[in-house]
């Protein structure tokens, strides 16, 4: 892409690269989704920095942002359609009730462990870990992964739990995030 200075061609190359990466990964038996994420990270950090002009970077950013918004809208629309087909049984609701705190604890632990070597002298590190834990909105990807599971006796229970976590994070966590941030980080009073 470094030798090309035509944003339309470079945009098509980026699209083809992501699509081909998915196909190659699937054909060799590894996750196509993870391969696409790795490709996007490499393109975003190395390719854009060294191989494209400012104009191309602007077009790439706009294209992939629009694509992200459209696919998110489509995903949540499909989630809504699938939600209508979910059977609410007692065991499914119990699995969801257990999955929500488990997801929060797992996220909190992963953030706390990853932050251990970072800024150990920071006095508000626990507040940062709490805010990052609560702001980790999980939804579309978890539901999409649950929906892609093969048929098994536990598939419906896992799909319902994934939907429950998504609904909890979008409503409870999403709607209370501002208040939690204000409580954890109150504005400093001027003297």
Q: How would you concisely characterize the structure shown here?
A:
This protein is mainly alpha-helical and 191 residues long.
Structure description:
With 191 residues, the protein is mostly helical. It has two domains: 7-69; 86-184, no CATH class. The chain is built from seven helices and no strands. The chain has helices spanning 7-27, 32-51, 54-85, 90-114, 125-134, 140-147, 155-184. Helix 4 (90-114) runs antiparallel to helix 5 (125-134). It is globular and about 55 Å long. The mean pLDDT is 81.
What is the number of domains? 2
Secondary structure tally, helices: 7
Largest sheet: none
Rg, please?
A: 21 Å
Distance between the termini: 55 Å
Q: What's the quaternary structure here? A: single chain
What attributes does this structure have?
191 residues; 7 helices
Topology:
Elements: H1 7-27, H2 32-51, H3 54-85, H4 90-114, H5 125-134, H6 140-147, H7 155-184
